[in-house]
Amino acid sequence: MKRLFFILYSLFISVALSLAQKNPKPGYIVTNTGDTIRGIIDFRTNDILSKKCEFWANGESESKTYNPGEIESFRFDHNGKYFVTRRLNVYGDPQLYFAEFMVQGKMNLYCVTDKYAEYFFFEREDGEMAQFTNRSLISSSSIQEEINNQQEKKEQYGKVKILLKDSWNAVQDMNVTDLSRKKLVNVVRDYHKDVCTDGSSCMVYEYKPESDRVKTHLKAFAGYTYYLKENTDKQNLDENYSGSAFDFGLGVEIDIERLMKGGSLELGVSYSPKAKFEHDVLVRGGLEPSHTVYEKGRVAYAFGMVKRFGSGKILPLVRGGGFYVLNFGNKETRYYRDNIYEWEWDNTKHYGLYLGAGIQMAVGKHFARMHGDWYKSLESSDIGNMMRWGVTAEFVL
Length: 397
Prior knowledge:
- It is built from five helices and 20 strands.
- By secondary structure, it is an alpha+beta fold.
- Strands 1, 2, 3, 4, 5, 6, 7, 8, 9, 10 and 11 form an eleven-stranded antiparallel sheet that branches. An eight-stranded antiparallel beta barrel has the order 12-13-14-15-16-18-19-20.
- The longest helix is centred in the middle third of the chain and has 21 residues, at 143-163.
C-alpha cells in the first residue's frame, strides 16, 4: 500500500512537470548580423538559459531554439536578464555559452550557472580575464573534494584581486566573507568608477537584481476535515473511529516559475483543537454495544507543491506533498453498561502524503483559494493509521 501511494505522488509530480515546461516572457534576440527581433522567450533557470534560448518571434506560433553562437544575445524586457554568446573556460575546455551579462564597462562581468555552482568571469578592457567560482555545499562529495574547492577559491580570489589592482576601492570590496552576486556587481562598478576617465566610455550596464528575486507569499488558511478512518495506539477493538474536526494555520509559499510555470512550493503549520471521535461496537463476549469516545488535538506540518493552470482571475490548481502530525491530549473513554473505562497516553505522531485539487481566484494583488484534499498516513502499524478528506480555504498575500 505504501508503494502505491509513493507511485501516485510521483505520478502527480511527473504530470505537473510535463505540463509546465514553458514560462514565456517578453523580450528580444539580437542576431549575428546585428538585427533585433522582438518576441517571447522561455524564462527558465540560469542553468538552462546558459545552454539554449527558446524564442517565439512576434506573430509566429512556432518557437525556435537557439544554441550559443547561433545568435549574438537575448534579453528579457523591463531591464531583465541579459545573455550574450561568449566562449568561456568553465570546465577546463573553452566552449560557447549564453553568459549572463551582469556589468559592462572598463571591466565586464559575466556569469555561467550550472546546478551546483556559479562561474563568474571578470574581463578587463584589454581582454585579460579572471574567473571566480561560487560552489554550493552539496557540490563536494568528500572532505578532500571540499579542501580542493577551497584551495581553488583561494587561488581564484588572488587572481581577481590582481586584475582589479588599478582600483583600490574594488580590491577592498573583494571581501572573501561576502562574494554574493550583488557584491561582485558592486566590485566591478567601483573598478569602472575609478578607472574610467573618458566620459564617452562611462556607459555601464548594470544587472538588475529584481529579475532574480524569488517571490514569497504568506498565507492563512482554515479547513474542515472528515476522518474516514482513525485508529489509536490504545485501541483493542476492531472498529475504526470516524468524525470531523476543524483546523487553521499559517504558511509560506515560494514561487518556482522558472522551474515550473504556475508552480510554487508550500510549507504550512496547522492546529486542530481537541475534537471527539466516537463509535459503538459490541465487545467480544459482551451483552450490549459499548460506546467509546476518543479525544485528541493535532499539530500538523505539511510540505508540498502547488501547480496552477492557465491565466486569468480564476485558475484551477492541483497540489500534493507530505505531512507530519503530532497528536496531543490523547484520551479514550469507554462506556459499557454501568462502567466507565479511561485511558490517557503521551503524544503520538505519524506521517503520510496528501493530494488535492481546487481553484484560485485573484483578489486585488492577492488571491484566495478553495481546495479539497485527501490525506493518508503511511505508518506500517495501526498507530496513527489515518485517512481523511478535507476542504480548506486559503488567503494568500
